[in-house]
Specification:
Blueprint: E1 8-12, H1 17-28, E2 32-37, H2 41-51, E3 54-57, H3 63-72, E4 78-81, H4 96-120, E5 126-130, H5 144-164, E6 170-176, H6 191-196, H7 206-217, E7 227-231
Parallel strand pairs: 1-2, 1-4, 2-3, 4-5, 5-6, 6-7
Helix pairs in contact: 1-7, 3-4, 4-5
Bound molecules: NADPH dihydro-nicotinamide-adenine-dinucleotide phosphate.
NADPH dihydro-nicotinamide-adenine-dinucleotide phosphate binds near residues 13, 38, 85, 179 and 184.
């Protein structure tokens, strides 16, 4: 297990689900962790008390708040952008304001947070963004905006890898398939449909995604950048 003793980690969107597992993993490995939350103050407070991580209210839909949070965090070693939302439904019926909010959280915040983090990040720094296998494969209707947002992260990582590589900073996208969280519970109505696309017919666990994030943040992954890392039970295969 990589040791993150002496490292500072900022997780955007860490109060629940995959983000909370990432917070727990870095704390367990010795890092000083700050995580943001927006709609779940109680979950955030509970996680902070349980782990010793610092919780900070920051709405990822608010670009300037995201930039300020990253800037005020100082020279962080690892930035993880996990906050993301999904909207399901008929594209012809969806509220354009809600779609634009999704783009602000899922696309704009990852971009601006990554750029802001790189300003102060030391050599060896790591930026990891949580995308989705839906950036590669969208096998159901009603989720085009979500798929668009996750595909956009791929171009972002490829481009920023070029910008930051000379300074020893890597940027990668982790692309989960179905993972058992509030957003996509294994006990939910989508279970059989989703498992039908998969070779390993179960939801992933948040801890499995956190393990991939920890590897990408660690010393063995210094040559890995501008790449997508899919962890999906072959959903996209
Ligand atoms: P959850 O809905 O369970 O948790 C989402 C987390 O993001 C919460 O901590 C939430 O905090 C935070 N968040 C959401 N919106 C905002 C916001 N506006 N500002 C700050 N924080 C925010 O989702 P998952 O854990 O399932 O998903 C996490 C990431 O993984 C997302 O990017 C998602 O797209 C991606 N993903 C998930 C998959 C799955 O099957 N679960 C599959 C593929 C990708 P709060 O409640 O405090 O606002």
């Amino acid at each position: 297990m990589a040791s993150f003793e002496g490292k500072s980690v900022l997780v955007l969107g860490g109060s629940r689900g995959i983000g909370a597992a990432i917070v727990r993993r870095f704390v367990q490995d010795g890092a000083a962790v700050t995580f943001t939350y927006s709609g779940s103050p109680e979950a955030a407070q509970q996680l902070a008390e349980e782990t010793g991580a610092t919780a900070a209210m920051t709405d990822s839909a608010d670009r300037d708040a995201v930039i300020a949070r990253v800037r005020d965090s100082g020279p962080i070693d690892v930035l993880v952008v996990n906050a993301g939302i999904a909207i399901f439904g008929d594209a012809l019926e969806q509220d354009p304001d809600q779609i634009d909010r999704l783009f602000r959280i899922n696309v704009h915040a990852p971009y601006h947070a990554s750029v802001e983090a790189a300003r102060q990040m030391p050599a060896g720094g790591r930026i990891i963004v949580i995308g989705s296998v839906n950036g590669d494969r969208m096998p159901v209707p009603g989720m085009a905006a979500y798929a668009l947002s996750k595909s956009a992260l791929q171009g972002m990582a490829r481009g920023l890898a070029r910008d930051f590589g000379p300074r020893g900073i890597t940027i990668n996208v982790v692309q989960p398939g179905p993972v058992d969280t509030d957003a996509n519970p294994e006990s939910g109505p989508m279970r059989d449909l989703l498992h039908g696309f998969m070779a390993i017919k179960r939801h992933g666990r948040p801890e499995e995604v956190a393990g991939m994030v920890a590897w990408l943040a660690g010393p063995e992954a210094g040559f890995v950048t501008g790449a997508m890392h899919t962890i999906d039970g072959a959903f996209g295969a």
